[in-house]
Amino acid sequence: MPSDSPLATLPIPASAPTSALFTPKLITILRESYSAADLRSDVLAGLTVAVVALPLSMAIAIASNAPPERGLYAAIIGGFFVSLLGGTRFQIGGPAGAFIVLVAACVERHGLDGMLLAVIMSGVILVAAGFLKLGTYIKFIPYPVTVGFTAGIATIIFASQIGEALGLAGREPAALLPKLQAIVQGLPHAQAGALFVAALTVGLIVLLGRLRPHWPNFLIALVVSSVAVAALGWQIDTIGTQFGGIAAALPSPSVHVAGFPGLLSLLPDAFAFALLGSIESLLSATVADGMTGRRHRSNCELVAQGVANVFSGLFGCLPVTGAIARTATNIRAGARGPIAGIAHSLFLLLFMLVAAPVARFIPLAALAGVLAMVAWNMFEKRAFATLLSASRSDAAVLLATFLLTIFRDVTTGIVIGFGASMLLFMARMSKTIGIEHVPLVAEDEPDNGARTRYDAALAADPMRVVFRLSGAFFFGTASTVASVLDRIAERPKTFILDFAAVPFLDSSAAVTIDAFSRKAARQGVTFVITGASAPVRDILAAHGLAQTGVRFERTIAEALAST
Q: Does pTM surpass 0.85?
């Protein structure tokens, strides 16, 4: 059975060779019975995705303050390596709308060459993260954080396209409020033609999406808008007037050389690219798993994303990641494996070589309409509303991430949102720990003299006290348990603490028990721990609990029989 089949629900065992964790899915499908019919399905799916990716790649590049061909390069080069080396069957790599804010800010600070070097550095970070097996932990980003930063990015993207849709000349400030202020001040100079083209593009995308959902609505909308501008002779900005067209060939690989201070200044941007790229790619892979019943290899995927970004930077491209919408399109188009992603890159290269002269007629207002729809689709409106009403803690994390992403930056939004989510989670978990006194006689049994040996042993010596812990025992709950133990009024000869319902504990919890055991030893109380699992006993022993004379027994009954 293939390792990623729907029935293979268990992870690769720890005894499996490490190489199995990093085997690209391309090799996996080639080892299977990959047929000519599978190849035909992948080629057709690749063509479908390439048609979708063509306008998006150029629009994302322009919105990122980069020439439009940089987006095409990223989809071609990055997409090729993501599919060649990736840990998912269906992932489509390329430039993503989520990167627009980060890339635009990096270009503004360090120029295009600095941004490309940051992309290469982010690729190295991603490769290291993959080989360190950090992909397992990146998947633990809380859902409110994901929805919050995605909505924040979508809001910024939408705002950044208002000026283009109105035909306003000049570059706007990167910050949201100054940007909106500049747009308001420029309203008297807005061009009705540009606004009409943007509205036409949005209208066609929405209409075709509803009436003909399988048609490439983004590309059709761009073509119709471009023909309309040319036919009406409107003088509005196009790719040709703004950028002089796009190149009809891939550039030669090169790298901008920077000294140590330059690399150090680019490190925050590189980490931001790597963090967002890893989250987006693994989120896309998870969505693909849900659509197909397959399982992806998260660390293999991170390595592939890293290699793709290294080559993307070398060839002058934007950062790349897994694109959720394009990956979903790939699956719906009938893809069978990674060859569909490779075919998508080759088709894009062919389109660029053949249609580069035509691209210069595409209006920037039409691309603004495309990105406005991308932003609208990125903003998970139903999930956002649900989280706002679900609980106060989820709403707080969502809004903190959303607002910080808008008014600060994406990295700060993710880090603060994640930290707030963890603090609130620990606060909730601290209320789940239980510590209760075990009665001498079971509450549902009458005291009629027919006691069990267990109850008789308890009754024989009232100076033996039994308490039971239940729930996760970690640093968030350690203080609660410590305060309860300190308030126990009885000072028996024997104190039994049952750990049978404690699934795990950490060092803070172990220190709490150690402190109590030392206090019990000073007062001459025999301290017995029962029901502790082997990992729990190992952690307690590692903190010197055995040195205080604590005894370990398997059950409460055995502890009572031996004291």
A: no
Contact by Cβ (8 Å): 371, 157: yes
From 143, 101, 190, select the one nearest 371 (Cα to Cα).
101
CA distance readout (Å), 215 to 203, 206, 391 = 15, 12, 40
DSSP 500-547: EE---B-HHHHHHHHHHHHHHHHTT-EEEEES--HHHHHHHHHTTGGG
Match domain 434-561 to its CATH number in 3.40.50.360, 3.40.50.150, 3.30.750.24, 3.40.50.2300: 3.30.750.24
Q: Which of 140, 137, 135, 191 is nearest to 163 (CA)?
A: 191
Token pair recorded at residue 550 = 């604590």
Extents of the domains making up the chain: 18-29+36-164+182-236+255-424, 434-561
| Span 91-115, pLDDT tens digits | 999 998 888 888 988 998 899 999 9
Q: Name the H helices within 293-363.
A: 298-314, 324-332, 339-359
Q: Considering the chain, what is the average pLDDT of its residues?
A: 84
CA distance 42 to 30: 13
pLDDT at 176 over 50: yes
